[in-house]
Amino acid sequence: MAFTMKQMSMIVSTFGVLSFILGVIAENKKPASGTVITGKGIVICKYSSDPTVVLGYLSVAFLALCTAFGYLSLFYPYKGKSVPQAALFRNTGFVVFFNIALGVTGLAAAMLLWPTITEQFHHAHNIHHNLETQCPTAKTGLLGGGAFLSLDSALFWLVALMLADNAREDYFEESDGKGTSSEPIKGSV
Predict the structure, then answer these.
(1) Which of 68, 130, 143, 188 has CA atoms 20 to 30 A from the CA of 98?
(2) 8-state DSSP, 4
(3) Paired strand residues for 38
(4) What is the pLDDT of residue 32?
């Protein structure tokens, strides 16, 4: 099946928005702390059944899909015409936004994974020998921040796609011989 640039941009947008929504919901559902249950020389932390960990991993998965399709959309041969990567990377704007998209994606993944893994760790290792343990949860705000960076990442992939489209048009104009002639265009002074 051949994709159009519009379809690819819709796929990238959809996955980016889903990652954002799931990250925000995960942040809002995260409990402030667990319930302390004191035993003989131990503290057991009981955490309510919340979907934070699952939603966090789903948000990361949709970010990964957004990134994969964002990257693929830049180099996909639309209408059966492929462009060498060197032609795309000659465009300074494309290079800048491509690198920003990669950087923001990495930062979003880190900010989504860190609290999700930490929360999962707290749920799995809930027996403490320190009697003053307060049953902590993952740091508040990281999932929400990661969700917003995930949305930003999708937007940067879309900007890079628009710049790649401009670079594609420039490449095909040059390779077709249009605009490379030294003869004046008819009707120009």
Answers:
(1) 143
(2) P
(3) 43
(4) 82
pLDDT digits (tens, 9 = 90+) for 57-89: 999 999 999 999 999 999 988 888 888 888 889
**pLDDT for 184:** 46
Instruction: Indicate the pTM of the whole model.
Output: 0.85
HEC secondary structure over 46-109: ECCCCCHHHHHHHHHHHHHHHHHHHHHHHHCCHHHCCCCHHHHCCCHHHHHHHHHHHHHHHHHH
Residue 146 is classified by DSSP as H
Any idea what the Cα angle at residue 58 is, between residues 143 and 65, rounded to 5°? 105
Per-domain boundaries in the chain? 5-172
Distance between CA atoms of 127 and 82, rounded to whole angstroms?
57
Two tokens, residue 9: 């941009």
Model pLDDT for residues 100-147, shown as the tens digit of each residue: 999 999 999 999 999 999 999 988 888 877 777 788 888 889 999 999
Residues 6+ apart with CB under 8 A from 9: 73, 158, 161
